Prior knowledge:
This protein is mostly helical.
Amino acid sequence: MRNAGAWLMGLACGLAPCPAMAECKGTMTRRNPYLSGVLALGLFAALPAAHAASGSSSALDRNRELQACAAKAEANPDGAKADAKRWQEQGGGDHAKLCEALALFHAGDFKAAGTQMEALVPTLGKDDPKAAASLLGRAGWAWLRAGDQGRAERLYGKALDKMPGDTDLLIDRAFARAEGERFWDAIADLDAALSRDPRRADAYLYRATAHKALSNYRQALSDIDHALELKPGDPEAILLRGNVKAMGGNLPAARDDWALARRVSPDSEWGRAAADNLARTAELAGAAGKDKAKEPPKKAQ
């Protein structure tokens, strides 16, 4: 993705801007937990009753096949893609195409995955708003990963038309809006998500990051405090709090938070980013001290 690092840099990448969203993998992966087995289960749970009654054995076989493909797509996308092609040749139809779309997504071919998921909405989502919204949302996420913020947002809008107020869809659309640097619109979606589920620590962090991008540091710190109440000791939140404090001009307090993030989770991406921030600011402080020492003494007046 093109610019998501700019608004998410406090979440997974320390103070340095992420050149691409792929470098903030922890956040992105967590925002997309349902592209595999859950999607498969959700679609098959929505099969028309007449179809299930007339071919329950066939439906169960397709369900198992799709779940197996979804699981394989995460670990071995190329193998899953080959399985999907064979399944299509054997008459797997739209379910085999969905299997292929999942494999394409996990292989990083986000445009092809998004296109294929969109194309499946009229059939796999027919007469079922939940299944249609599921596919539209996954297609939106694929296009967001591909860097097409406008198309992603339109798809999230269509998904929310099918399932108004869905918390995950609201949060995902907030990502799309933030991609377009429409931070207040992103905050509006996150406000709506938190009004429906006030225990979403992740949504508080995303809203804090949007406030940070707008230089609303007090609001950002308030949201981080809420996140830490829900998830004490979270290194991601502690890192972000340090970054916000640094941007607000309180570097000593920021360094305290970075030291804490490094201490509670030294091997995580957030712990490593905190360590990097500590090292970088120490170097800057050292350089500033040397420059000051080189200054000639001021003459007495």
